[in-house]
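Q: Could you fold this chain for me?
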Amino acid sequence: MSDDIEQGPESAGPEAPRQGAGVPRKPKVAPDPRLEHAVASENAGDAQAAAMAYQAEIKADPNFGLAYAGLGALLLRLGRLDPAIAALQEAARLIPTNASPIGSLALALMRRGRHAESREAAKKLVRLTPQAAAAYRLWADCCHAAGDMPGIVEAYASGHAALPTNTELLVFLAKALINANKNERAENTLNAAFERVEATPTLLGILGDAYFRQSKIAEAEEVLARSLASDPNCQYALMVLSRIRSAEDKNDEAAALLERLRPPLEPPAVVTFAQVRRRQKREPEAERLLVDLIEHSGHKPDALAAARFVLGGMREAQGRFDEAFRLYKDANDSALARFDRDATRRFIDSLIDVYNAWRAPTYARGDPTDVPIFIVGMPRSGTSLVEQILASHPEVFAAGELSDLEITSQRACRRLGIQPTPYPGFMPTLTREQVLEMGRPYLDRIRATAPGAKRHTDKMPHNFRHVGMIWQLFPNARVIHCRRDPIDTCLSCYSISFNASHSYSNSLEGLAFMYGEYRRLMQHWRTSLPLNLLEVVYEDLVHSPEEWSRKVVDFAGLPWNEKCLDFHKTKRAVLTASVDQVRRPVYDSSIGRWQKFETHLKPLIDAMGELAHVPG
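A: Sure. Below is the predicted structure, expressed as structure tokens.
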């Protein structure tokens, strides 16, 4: 292997040191007397002499695993990935129970982009050192490099299970769960962990975030108050509490909280600060915050995605459309979540198969309540506007986007004590008692949050997938389907920072595919189930706001109220991406927005074909 050290360094990222720059590391001790010369050369910063010494020992004893391990680790530090991997693989073969070369091999494979192998090496390291927190962090890092969000969660969950009192791993796990949009699991994990570990200010701040993302505002406020009582400058708690205040349109209060933050600020806190400054009409400050974060912070690209989305929105408002689209694309390209088209198609197929026009009428039906109104459609199709109109009516409680139906679909078998079967396959087999039991948690929640409300809205757009379940669990529930120009809808999704459940929005092709599946499923619901359904086209609502507002209120079974026309004056927390839009009167500037980006949207338009300009 003597020639390998003479070649130029391979690409290993900007941090890889070049030969001749020395080996920046703390002094090490030789694990074997035969390696003393090699290690002394390393400690002296003479990488060339160290490599030659390791190679001499390997030549003298081709089965000297520690020499391969030392050489591989040296080459890794020099950024010489291919020869490093070769040496470390040989070390792993010769000394398979030695953790050091396994960890170095996982790191080298990760930097080389050999992600499946790197994750397997990291898992082997975990098996060898199950009580080492660093092993679980390396496993998660390998998953992160591969864009494997479920793997990140698995790595930290395994670490937390093995080391339940390790607060650092618990923080990483809770954040990973929130990033993966598993907010209820984050909530449950943290509350269970508090029986064994101290509820630190940061952990309480993360718990407040999990509550906030589930629209559990009272619970969030309570734990955030506990966090800040212990540490008035807790960055996570201040950030989440400021988001709540901004969602309530109390931006001066939100800014006052953020002004208490102490550097260095994490990217989410900077983005939150920039958004609040924008809402305070302090655009130059917001821009400086975002540009400095993106250009000078050194964070990984996925950590900067939200900043790029917000700055892209600012560039768009300035008429700098090419710059805006480049920022949107960079943000989407850096996303960790991966969209599985095949799984999505199979799921839509299963819904269409289970809820077909011949079989569905024979299924058991649930609670006859007419309290729930489900507002569904593609995200960014006008669901927030329709909700805000209804929320302005004194007899309506608007709950925002609830994940309860998704959770219900996942937990039904365990709750009902039936054979585990993927949803929706078990739905035809349920008795009426089981259907009632399946829907009870949802009704319990809405009755507890607003016991006096005559109507209760749930505007989770993705509930379009669960219209069959809604029809079965709540036969008298109302469904409002929001539709909008397809290209405007998809562009709006592409230019917004969504959570992992919207991974299709990270590419134009993914959006085209998802839009087609959404259209296919909604057409099935219309033709196969006798739904209590109102279809609202966003453009019609914008052009004739009073006519369509009256139709929406009438469909809800409520008397007309003039406050529904002044929806932008209604004071309530709005937790969705449309928070700024619903604070304004109806405007039409978003109609035809896609035309500003037409040259960039050709892949989307081509992929959508005839669906491109016909609202769903």
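A (continued): The beta strands are 372-377, 396-398, 455-458, 478-483, 533-537.
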